[in-house]
Structure formats: structure tokens, C-alpha cells
Design a protein that fits this description.
Largest sheet of chain A: none
Radius of gyration of chain A: 24 Å
CATH superfamily of the largest domain in chain B: P-loop containing nucleotide triphosphate hydrolases
Helix content of chain B: 25-40%
Number of helices of chain B: 8
Oligomer: heterodimer
CATH architecture of the largest domain in chain A: Orthogonal Bundle
CATH superfamily of the largest domain in chain A: MetI-like
Number of strands of chain A: 0
Largest sheet of chain B: 6 strands, mixed
Order of helices and strands of chain A: HHHHHHHHHHHHH
Number of strands of chain B: 9
Shape of chain B: globular
Shape of chain A: globular
Number of domains of chain B: 2
Distance between the termini of chain A: 38 Å
CATH class of the largest domain in chain A: Mainly Alpha
CATH architecture of the largest domain in chain B: 3-Layer(aba) Sandwich
Structural class of chain A: mainly alpha
Strand order of the largest sheet of chain B: 5-6-7-3-8-9
Distance between the termini of chain B: 31 Å
CATH topology of the largest domain in chain B: Rossmann fold
Chain lengths: 273, 270
């Protein structure tokens, strides 16, 4: 018996060997949960219009992703997410650098930022819809507002974390402030910025959907509201799956960029999930 | 009177003077009011191409002195004059080597060594060629594309020496450059530095805690007192060059080390 196991272990392909106990249990849990769910619906423990089976949801998702109108809603929401995020990134990094490097700006702006940070951003969304209308603009502003603070806070600590000896080195080379910023401060802040970006990426999806809930004729969030109104539960689940996929793709993209830009950082290598 | 004349003759370098310190002092504002005098009236000269070491008790303001000589810090009193500077320059171009290599971790060895070239906006191709030669000079050939974390402490310090040399500085300021290395590597690096110095022909100001290291490397050793620091004595080291480790066991060498040690124990703990 023991020899048989050993022989199998040796002949196992590389992929199988890498699948450790944790991965195996995780997969087992997946099968248990979704299998159980599927069976619960099939056996009629749950009415399908309340809780649709996973297989039905998957089929609907495939249909949605191949339908032009739904796809255009995806693109609409993605645009809100990306444009809002980029706006927050530019504003957050710019203001973060100013606060971290200029003591006067720090003293003047920091109290306001602390105060603004405590406001629940989602609660401001209705006002933003009134101000910026039912079009894409208000959603971009909501996403940018939600994304702004994690990026700003991490940018400030990132720019403040510069090794003073690196600055002294640059000064000994008679570097300009701009050169010090570009060649030392910005790269030093990158691992911190990436930490903020990971959080913001997730927040972006929330911001876009909440914005669309409040007032929008297009986008995945408004589609959820429409389908809910017509009791199309499978349809709502399908959008949920699409939104989750968007979140996962954005997260993986951010992680890949982070690993490229901050490959040298220990925190980058150690960052979980 | 006679003693004064001797002291002066010792304070003047054998080579043409390059940097002259005249009554230089530095006082810091203490954190909770009051003032801390880090350096109290220091005067000496450094010659062109000379290797000068500064030894002194911990916290005696050696680093402060080094920064003032490099023009990174203004003296509170006295003045520092530089001779034979390139036209349009108020202070000499610097190459700094710290106790830790202070390499930028996101840059390869070659990119780190090229940093001064980029900052000074010199010709890239020319600069890179020089950087490659210097990397070879410091014994890092083959490691050009490695990142700092892939190197040992001694290798990192070699890279930082190459970086300090690439801008063709008028003076090399070294602030305990081997302080973070183990004893064996340290001894080896001292020999390497002598080799690099003799082929690069630079003025070097070297701060160290190690008396033997100072005697081994220097043309002259400046011994400082405890804070507020003054110059206790400037000791010319007239051992022939190139020096080897054998020499450290010689009687002349031993006598100079013993002399410096007695000066330091007279002025305070090391």
C-alpha cells in the first residue's frame, strides 16, 4: 500500500503535486456549497423564483454576456469605474504628494480631509445625482469620491516613507526637487499606492452600482433595479455574477500591475488575497 | 612656540591644498530649547588627491563635519574654502558613500551606478560605458543586471562606491562605509578601497571607528575629541604605498595605532 502511494506520488504530474491540501479542501467546499444549492432547488426545497439554481444562473449569465444590450450596460458601468478611478488616482496622488511634502498644505488641508473622510460617501450619492444629473457624470463622480480617500491616505504615507539618506544622496548630486520626486519619492511610494489602489478597485464597483441604483437609465446597477421590478431573480443573480467577474478581473489586473511596478518591495510580495 | 610651529606644519598637507577649514563650528538647536554644540572650532586642510581619515569618539560630530565639508550643511561659524574648483562652482562635486549602501531597490546595479549620470543630465551612452568600467573596477563585473537585494552587504557597498565615482567627483566623502560589514569583509574592502583610490586618483575624506583601518588607508589621520569636538591631533601616516595587510603587523604601524588610541582614551571613550 505504502509503495503504491509512493509510486503514484512519483509519477504524478507537476500540476497535481502543487495541489496541496488547502486547495483540495477549498475545491471540495465549492462543490459541496454549489452542489447542495443546486440539489436544494432541484428537490424543490426552495422555489426557483426565489432562489434560482446555480446552473440556471450560469446559463443566464452566458446569455447576458452574449446579448448586445446587456453588454453595452457592462461597458457603461466599466467606463464609470475606470474613469472615476483614474480621476481619483490623479487627484489622490497629486494631493497626497502636496500634503506629504508641503508642511503648510498639510496644516491647511488635513483637518478638512479628516472631516470629509468620516462622511459616508454612499450617503452623498443622491446629492451628486441631483448636481451632476442622471447621466454617466454623476456616477463617475461617485466612484471617484469613494476611491479618492484610500488612494490619498496611502499616497501620503507612501511619500512620507522616503529614506532620508536617499534624499541626502540626491542632494549631494545636486538633484532638483522634481528629480528627487520622480526618481526617489514616487518609486518609494509605489507599494503604498498599490495598497490604496487594491482597495479602491473594489470600492469602484460598489460606487458605480450604488450610483446607478439611485438614478440611471443604463449600466448594470440600473439593470438590477429593472429586473428586480419584474421579479426576474435569475436575471439579478446573473448581473451579480457579472459584477463579481468584473471585480475579480480588476483585482487581478491591479495585482499584476502592482507586481510589475513594486516588484522590489517586501510588502508587495507578502500582500495576501 | 616650538610646539605651535610643529602643529602647524603637521596640519598642512604635503600636496597642494584643496579644501581649507578655518575655525569651523556647528551648533544645533536642541529639540526642547537650548543649543547643542556639535563641532567646536576645527581648522585643517585637505590636499588634492589626499586620503584623509577622521577618527573620534561616537557622537563627536564627525558626520556633521563631513556634511559641512561637502557643502551639504552650513557651518555656524568659521569658513570653508575650496581651491581649484571648476568655473561657476561654489562647492566641489561630491561622491558620497554611506554606512549602508543606500541603493535604490527598484534599480539594477547598473541603473543604480548610472543614477548620478541621469541626475546631472550627462551623456547617457558615455555615462553607461564609464559605469560599466567602474563596476568592473570595484569587482562587480557580471552583476550589472542584478537587483540590490540579490547582493551581499559587501557587494552592495562596492556598487555604492562605483556610483560615487561615476560623476567624477572632486571629493569622495565616505561616512563609515564599512561599518555595517563583518570583520573579514571589512579588511578585504579596505584593501580594495586602497586599490580603487590609487587608480581613480580622488581626494577622499573617510570617517571610521576603526583605528587600524584609518592608519592602513590614510595619508593623514585627523583625531577628534569628544563633543564639543576639536582636532586633538593630525597624524601623518608615512607608510609606503601600496600597503598590504602584512604591514599592519609592522612596528611603525603598531606605534601609530597605539598613539591614536592613547589620544582617544585621553579625550574620552571610543
Amino acid at each position: 500500500m505504502a509503495t503504491a502511494t509512493a509510486a503514484r506520488g512519483e509519477s504524478a504530474p507537476g500540476l497535481l503535486r502543487r495541489l496541496d491540501v488547502g486547495t483540495a479542501l477549498s475545491a471540495a467546499l465549492f462543490i459541496l456549497l454549489f452542489g447542495g444549492w443546486e440539489l436544494a432547488v432541484i428537490w424543490g426545497l426552495m422555489p426557483a423564483f426565489v432562489l434560482p439554481s446555480p446552473s440556471d444562473v450560469v446559463v443566464r449569465t452566458v446569455v447576458d454576456l452574449t446579448t448586445a444590450t446587456t453588454l453595452s450596460d457592462c461597458v457603461y458601468t466599466l467606463t464609470e469605474i475606470l474613469v472615476g478611478f483614474l480621476g481619483a488616482l490623479i487627484l489622490g496622488v497629486g494631493l497626497g504628494a502636496l500634503i506629504a511634502l508641503n508642511p503648510l498644505a498639510d496644516r491647511v488641508l488635513s483637518p478638512y480631509i479628516v472631516a470629509l473622510q468620516t462622511i459616508p460617501k454612499v450617503a452623498v450619492a443622491p446629492i451628486l445625482v441631483i448636481w451632476f444629473g442622471f447621466g454617466i457624470e454623476s456616477k463617475i463622480v461617485i466612484v471617484a469620491l469613494i476611491d479618492f480617500f484610500p488612494i490619498l491616505v496611502n499616497a501620503v504615507s507612501g511619500f512620507r516613507s522616503t529614506d532620508p539618506r536617499q534624499i541626502l544622496l540626491m542632494k549631494s548630486l545636486e538633484a532638483t526637487d522634481w528629480q528627487i520626486f520622480v526618481k526617489v519619492r514616487l518609486p518609494n511610494a509605489t507599494p503604498f499606492l498599490m495598497a490604496g489602489i487594491y482597495i479602491s478597485m473594489i470600492f469602484s464597483v460598489i460606487g458605480a452600482v450604488v450610483g446607478e441604483f439611485i438614478g440611471s437609465a443604463r449600466g448594470l446597477g440600473s439593470l438590477i433595479v429593472q429586473r428586480q421590478a419584474s421579479m426576474d431573480v435569475i436575471g439579478v443573480f446573473s448581473i451579480l455574477v457579472i459584477l463579481t467577474l468584473i471585480g475579480i478581473v480588476l483585482n487581478i489586473a491591479a495585482k499584476m500591475i502592482g507586481r510589475r511596478l513594486a516588484f522590489w518591495s517586501e510588502t508587495e510580495g507578502a500582500s495576501g488575497i | 612656540m616650538v610646539a605651535a610651529t610643529i602643529a602647524r606644519s603637521i596640519a598642512t598637507p604635503a600636496r597642494a591644498p584643496f579644501i581649507a577649514l578655518d575655525g569651523v563650528a556647528k551648533t544645533y538647536e536642541a529639540r526642547f530649547g537650548g543649543q547643542v554644540q556639535a563641532v567646536e572650532t576645527v581648522s585643517f586642510e585637505i590636499g588634492h588627491g589626499e586620503f584623509v581619515s577622521i577618527v573620534g569618539p561616537s557622537g563627536c560630530g564627525k558626520t556633521t563635519l563631513l556634511k559641512m565639508i561637502g557643502g551639504l550643511l552650513e557651518p555656524s561659524a568659521g569658513k570653508i574654502t575650496y581651491q581649484g574648483l571648476a568655473p561657476g562652482r561654489k562647492k566641489p562635486q561630491l561622491g558620497i558613500v554611506f554606512q549602508d549602501a543606500v541603493l535604490l531597490p527598484w534599480r539594477t546595479v547598473l541603473q543604480n551606478v548610472c543614477l548620478p549620470i541621469e541626475v546631472m543630465r550627462k551623456d547617457r551612452a558615455e555615462g553607461e560605458a564609464l559605469a560599466r568600467r567602474l563596476i568592473e573596477l570595484v569587482g562587480l563585473k557580471g552583476f550589472e543586471d542584478k537587483y540590490p537585494t540579490e547582493l551581499s552587504g559587501g557587494m552592495q557597498q562596492r556598487a555604492s562606491i562605483a556610483r560615487a565615482l561615476v560623476s567624477d567627483p572632486a571629493i569622495l566623502l565616505m561616512d563609515e562605509p564599512f561599518g555595517a560589514l563583518d570583520a573579514l569583509t571589512r579588511e578585504y574592502m579596505a584593501q580594495e578601497l586602497q586599490r580603487i583610490w590609487s587608480s581613480a586618483a580622488k581626494t577622499v575624506l573617510f570617517i571610521t571607528h576603526s583605528i587600524t583601518e584609518a592608519v592602513f588607508l590614510s595619508d593623514r589621520v585627523v583625531v577628534m575629541t569628544a563633543r564639543p569636538s576639536r582636532v586633538a591631533e593630525i597624524i601623518p601616516i608615512d607608510l609606503p604605498r601600496p600597503r598590504d595587510l602584512q604591514m599592519t603587523t609592522s612596528e611603525v604601524f603598531g606605534r601609530q595605532v597605539a598613539h591614536i588610541r592613547s589620544l582617544l582614551s585621553a579625550t574620552g571613550e571610543l
